[in-house]
Known about the structure:
Elements: E1 5-10, H1 14-25, E2 30-33, H2 38-43, H3 66-72, H4 77-80, H5 85-92, E3 99-104, H6 116-120, E4 129-130, E5 133-134, E6 147-149, H7 155-158, H8 168-179
Parallel strand pairs: 1-2, 1-3, 3-6
Antiparallel strand pairs: 4-5
Helix pairs in contact: 1-8
Amino acid sequence: MGAVLPLLIVGAGPFGIVMSVVARRRAIPHVVVGRTMDFWRENMPEGMLLRSACDWHLDPFDEDTIERYLESRGLAPADVEPLSLSLYRDYCDGTRLTVHQIVLATGYQVDVGRIPFLAAGNILPQLETRGGFPVLDERFQSNLHGLYFTSMCAVQDFGPFFAFTVSVRASARVIGSALGFGEVQS
Length: 186
């Protein structure tokens, strides 16, 4: 029998990255599957400026903020705002890191039937969906125990706020608490 892993996070965009921060803070062994910020690298034009300011960082604990990232490079928010896509991707890049729980943070086009590992396995026929979206409870969990969705997959049940990157701090805290691996240390 292979090794047992408590948490698999599918997606290495903003939501997956933040969920990894929460899991690490809660001492939950986990693996993130995906290429860091891949959608942003492949689909956003070079030279693009973001509407986000430096306070739209990913860390729900306010430690690894864009401001601290800039400070470590001798820069101030006024030097870089509006944020460039390349600066934001550099800020987000990090180390890539039998599963008990899964957090899907896969991004834009929501049709869970097209997520390869769900479509290829035995989970999809059991997963309750509505219009291609998973049906979620108040903790972002689907009807299948231990299968969580966030980002665009959560928009139908939680509203359009969860389509925006800034929502990662809220969803990561809720899912982190639901995982039940001890308290988050501030």
